Fold this sequence. Notes:
Elements: E1 5-12, E2 16-18, H1 28-33, H2 41-46, H3 57-68, E3 69-75, H4 76-85, E4 95-99, E5 107-108, E6 114-118, H5 122-133, E7 137-142, H6 144-152, E8 158-164, E9 172-173, E10 183-192, E11 197-205
Parallel strand pairs: 1-7, 1-8, 3-4, 3-7, 4-6
Antiparallel strand pairs: 2-9, 5-6, 8-11, 10-11
GO molecular function: 5-amino-6-(5-phosphoribosylamino)uracil reductase activity
Protein name: Deaminase
Domain Bacterial bifunctional deaminase-reductase C-terminal: 4-197
Amino acid sequence: xxxxxxxxxxxxxxxxxxxxxxxxxxxxxxxxxxxxxxxxxxxxxxxxxxxxxxxxxxxxxxxxxxxxxxxxxxxxxxxxxxxxxxxxxxxxxxxxxxxxxxxxxxxxxxxxxxxxxxxxxxxxxxxxxxxxxxxxxxxxxxxxxxxxxxxxxxxxxxxxxxxxxxxxxxxxxxxxxxxxxxxxxxxxxxxxxxxxxxxxxxxxxx
Length: 206
């Protein structure tokens, strides 16, 4: 059985993790939000961008997040955006369970990523992800609504926010709709680099 259920996202200082429109993904603000990731050696390796790249704690965190993940869960909105933008060798390299009403056969990509489409809700998707992950962890990849559904259902054990020095003004808020009366947090770690601050929390029911 898998271990921890977690999420790990980049967030702007004003609380947004994505632009409102999927058409704006990969735009200027989104690139600025994730600018800490692009120079890293791990990112270059994972996206097959060639040799080189920066070492250091940011690189370690990106690699550790990838290595602990045995399977992922994501919402349909995130999948739809990613399907257009991910390279042929999608960057997960593990099973991914997409929560959707669409009925679709598994979509296998080169490099070990297979997208499975789950039609009976988040608990079913998470159960399948736990089974697929083995003794590794399950990552709730996003988007924001899917993360909040897991939080409100008491299904998240911990999370890390990479707080980037950028302002969005509008977009998809990370904690929009969270049931703050049920969710309590404990900060367990804070690590800063010149580009970003990594904040890690455990989650418990209030």
